[in-house]
Amino acid sequence: METKLSSVIIGFGIMGRIRYHAMQRHGGYEIRAICDIRSEVREQMPDGLFVYSDWRTCIDEQEPKVVIVCAVNKMIPEIVCYALKRGCAVFSEKPPGRTLEDALKIQKVYNECGITLKFGFNHRYHNSVIEAKALLDSGLLGEAVCVRGVYGKAGNEHFAEEWRNNKEISGGGILLDQGIHMLDLMRYLLGSELYVKSGIVNNLVWKELETEDSAIALLETERHQIASIHSSVLQWRHKFDMDILCTNGYIALNGLLTNSKSYGEESITYYKKDLLAESGKLGRPKEHTMCFNEDFSWDKEMDEFYEAVTNQKPIVHGTMDDAVKTMQIVTDIYKLAEKKG
Ligand SMILES: NC(=O)c1ccc[n+]([C@@H]2O[C@H](COP(=O)([O-])OP(=O)(O)OC[C@H]3O[C@@H](n4cnc5c(N)ncnc54)[C@H](O)[C@@H]3O)[C@@H](O)[C@H]2O)c1
């Protein structure tokens, strides 16, 4: 019989709800309680659950096997560390706090407790990314030598008031919020650690914000693979594009299937280099494209976590190490930009 994991969710905003539904679909989680500090959120909880406004009381009273942390960045380290120390397995949203120090604090407790901990680097579970990784691993296109990514969104009329732009709560702007996903993907797909060579972080339009609206960075691995990222709120639409240049071909990831459907259709296109123009079209090699219209990323993520907790399978994506390494990159980009400013 399938083990049901007694679970609580801390923070029931956008991500809390997404995780709740994925856990329900999975069937292996027994969600007992939800905690949120906002009364309007507590009033709209699904039926049959205990409802808390204080996360410590929620964890202490429920003594769950699993704690799902979907509160704001500022709260993540404290809640994650507390839950781990209480012997709970933890699934936490990214980023692992506001700073690298936060991530390292979590890492220390994690190392001491030796309990399952996974972070929500969700993009690795998107179909286009899974196909890209498989293509790279197959060797068909040779080795990945260069990757460039654009991750852009449009801030809405309330953007300036969002907690994401309150540095005290978020710790950083669009780079820490969204760019961190792309940096994680770049590390994953290149298969090497990235080091920051240069970076510019600025407020080009949203001048009143204390967090950046734009970040551009150049990075390199020890194997001299190159990466560039543009993370921006000035795209004025939602956009996700990644190009991967390989020794024998090319991969493009375009669009990302999200709940809002605003990043466009998700697709992967690849081609092999064709220097002899066997296709008859030098500069226009034969391309192969796959499009996806279903997003199973949240389900796959909750399944990996479930298997780790119940069957001691290793966490492959969103490990503590992934969390610290990507936080290191974000911190280095911020530091480099500060020095120049
Ligand atoms: N994995 C992803 O793809 C992804 C996407 C978006 C956001 N996130 C991350 O998820 C987290 C939440 O983001 P969101 O978009 O759901 O924000 P949100 O504002 O929609 O939800 C956050 C919720 O946490 C609650 N909260 C704040 N402090 C709390 C506390 N002390 N105790 C209990 N509840 C508290 C808020 O009231 C709110 O309801 C952030 O860390 C964010 O970076 C991850």
TrEMBL record:
Source domain of life: Bacteria
Domain GFO/IDH/MocA-like oxidoreductase: 131-251
All residue ranges annotated as the Gfo/Idh/MocA-like oxidoreductase N-terminal domain in the record: 8-117
One GO molecular-function entry: nucleotide binding
InterPro entries recorded: Gfo/Idh/MocA-like_OxRdtase_N (IPR000683), Gfo/Idh/MocA_Oxidoreductases (IPR051450), GFO_IDH_MocA-like_dom (IPR055170), NAD(P)-bd_dom_sf (IPR036291)
PANTHER family (UniProt xref): BILIVERDIN REDUCTASE A (PTHR43377)
Protein name, as recorded: Gfo/Idh/MocA family oxidoreductase
Organism: Sporofaciens musculi
